[in-house]
Each structure stands twice: as structure tokens, then as C-alpha cells.
Amino acid sequence: MAGQMNKWVNTEVVNAAKPLKAAHFPFPRAKELFDVLSWCVTDYYTKASIGRDFEARGVLVVADSRQGKTKELQRLIDDFNGASVIMPDGRPAKMIRCILSGKVTWKDLGLKILKELGYSLKGRHGQTQIWDMVVKYAELQGVVGIHFDECQHVFTEEGDRTNQQFLDSFKTLL
Is the Cβ–Cβ distance between 135 and 19 less than 8 Å? Predict the structure, then answer.
């Protein structure tokens, strides 16, 4: 069969669809998302310039599934990480991404972030120790943002108390 690599992959379709799927079509929301993230980074940079402890800002991006949120955010994060932003203390700034899947505990989330930061823990560690390490290593690496993707999975319909604990924990992390 012409155009067939095997019976499952039609290379003619692949060759025609690849440039279309690889293309980026900026939505009007991309400018607004950039502006909001830029404001958060500017606010962070300003507060870091003062040299005291501070609370960072967060952005919550909500839309129906399959609307391009992850792809748009990843483009902005890649652009930020490639821009060589230097923080007031001389460290290069960066943003990282943590994909959540299924129900996770706050401790699990800390372990996932540590893995993204290049630290895999072995053995038993308490939640407080894990989060102390997250804050320490994120600061040492110049992390100014963490994109939590698929965050809806940590919240449940019947878990009001657990949901509130997660929200409070996110606020504490900021």
C-alpha cells in the first residue's frame, strides 16, 4: 500500500498533519496570560530585591479540557526559562512543571516537586522535612514559579476538609 509504513501508520497522513500539529496558533488569551505571568514575576523580583521574606503570587488557569492551557503555559514557561532572567541575588530564575495525576497527598506532591528539582528521596521522610527540602532546593535553583498541571485531580467532591487543607498548603507554599 502506497504511503503506508505498516498497516497501522499512514505516513502520508503523518507527513501532511505534522506541520499543522506542530504549528502554534496564538489565541487572544495568550497575551493576557503572558501579562499576568509577567506581573507575577515582576512582583516576585521586586519583593526579592528588598531581601526579606515575602509571599509570592499565583495564577489559576481554568478552562474546559482540550483547550490548549497546558501547551500555552508550557510555551510561556519555556520562553521564560530561555530568557536568562537573573534574580537580584545573581541566580538565574526558572520555572518548573509538576504534573499531577490521580489523588495525591501533600507529601506526594512534595516528593514530585523534589524529583522535578533533581532530588529523589529514598527511605522515610516526614511531610515537613520534604517541604523544607522543596523550599530549600527551589530557592537554591532560582525557582520563581511552579506550574501544577492537572491540579483538579487533588480535589474531590466530598473532601471539603482535605480540599481546604490543600488550598491552605498552596498558599503557604507561595
Answer: no
What CATH number should be reported for the domain holding residue 84?
A: 3.40.50
Query: Which residues, 6+ apart, have CB-to-CB distance to 100 below 8 Å?
Result: 109, 112, 148, 149, 150, 151, 153, 154
The owner of cell 520555572 is 95
Residue numbers of the domain that contains 28: 11-173
Domain total for the chain? 1
Nearest to 119 by CA among 102, 136, 103, 94: 136
Bridge partners, 145 (sequence order): 95
Task: List pLDDT tens digits, range 47-97.
Answer: 999 988 888 888 877 777 777 778 888 889 999 999 999 989 899 999 998
